[in-house]
Structure to design on (322 residues):
């Protein structure tokens, strides 16, 4: 389970790298790449691939990144199948391990379908966002499964985090909403819609079009690589993500302070504060440094780590441990 959780994290990070390096359509078909299990390398293979897909000429650098991501995602599917096999073979009913494992299996196959549609629907934004959230949900469920399988193995009192449960759950909901906004921002190529900070194009409130920016279901068949929205629509998405970041920072910041004031929960508060501040800093640097690839990938990875911290806090705040 731990190995699967680590693999899931790397799938998220590698997926962000693929998306941010514009390699999401590095292979125009699925599950292969230009009809191959790997990707075209030899000159004759590239010629044949270009003839078969003239609208999408081979770019080897993008193709191998996309396929490595698919291989790693495939390895995660195998690991989830193994988890289910072990859970049912050994009848691991304690802490709902069997049920969680089965739900995880359903989710991972849904993720595979979303991965396919991401390619076949040419980066349709709502599918890209759903694929990102599905990856985070898979990661989160694996973390919960690991903690349930370990049972009670904490040095703090079992009720150390219980008084903070309402705020923890509220923080988790706010964070998930902000992660969805981040996915929508990335899917619509709106990360640099505001090239300055804290203003946007030198204004507090520039020209925006929220109605067009948040249309979820768009025409199928259009190539959405690079985005199709106009500047006011992308600006609206970017500003919504900034506003969400402020709300998330306030809610999780208050939670971190509250946890830190109590000695038995201080470690959780400090951990949350560190990861939260790192995420906010990376988000600001994305704008002021014009979205450097390593920083943007780190922003995605730290978002996953922030989700992991909140899931851990949610688990620790349960009423009782079995």
């Amino acid at each position: 389970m731990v190995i699967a959780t680590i693999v899931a994290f790397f799938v998220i990070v590698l997926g962000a790298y693929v998306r941010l390096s514009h390699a999401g359509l590095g292979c125009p078909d699925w599950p292969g790449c230009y009809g191959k299990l790997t990707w075209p390398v030899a000159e004759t293979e590239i010629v044949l691939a270009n003839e078969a897909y003239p609208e999408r000429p081979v770019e080897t650098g993008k193709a191998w990144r996309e396929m490595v991501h698919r291989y790693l995602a495939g390895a995660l599917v195998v690991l989830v199948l193994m988890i289910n096999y072990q859970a049912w073979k050994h009848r691991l009913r304690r802490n709902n391990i069997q049920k969680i494992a089965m739900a995880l299996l359903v989710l991972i196959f849904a993720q595979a379908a979303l991965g396919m549609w991401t390619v076949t629907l040419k980066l349709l934004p709502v599918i890209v966002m759903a694929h990102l959230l599905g990856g985070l949900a898979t990661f989160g469920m694996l973390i919960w499964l690991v903690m349930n399988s370990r049972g009670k193995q904490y040095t703090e009192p079992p009720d150390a985090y219980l008084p903070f449960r309402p705020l923890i759950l509220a923080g988790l909901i706010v964070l998930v909403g902000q992660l969805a906004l981040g996915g929508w921002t990335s899917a619509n190529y709106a990360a640099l819609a505001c090239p300055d900070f804290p203003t946007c194009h030198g204004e507090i409130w520039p020209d925006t079009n929220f109605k067009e920016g948040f249309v979820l279901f768009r025409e199928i068949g259009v190539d959405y690589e690079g985005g199709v929205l106009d500047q006011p629509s992308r600006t609206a998405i970017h500003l919504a993500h900034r506003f969400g970041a402020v709300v998330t920072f306030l809610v999780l910041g208050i939670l971190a302070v509250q946890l830190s004031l109590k000695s038995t929960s201080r470690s959780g508060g400090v951990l949350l504060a560190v990861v939260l501040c790192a995420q906010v800093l990376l988000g600001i640097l994305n704008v002021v440094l014009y979205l450097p690839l390593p920083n943007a990938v780190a922003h995605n990875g730290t978002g996953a780590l922030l989700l992991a911290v909140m899931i851990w806090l949610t688990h620790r705040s349960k009423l009782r441990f079995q």
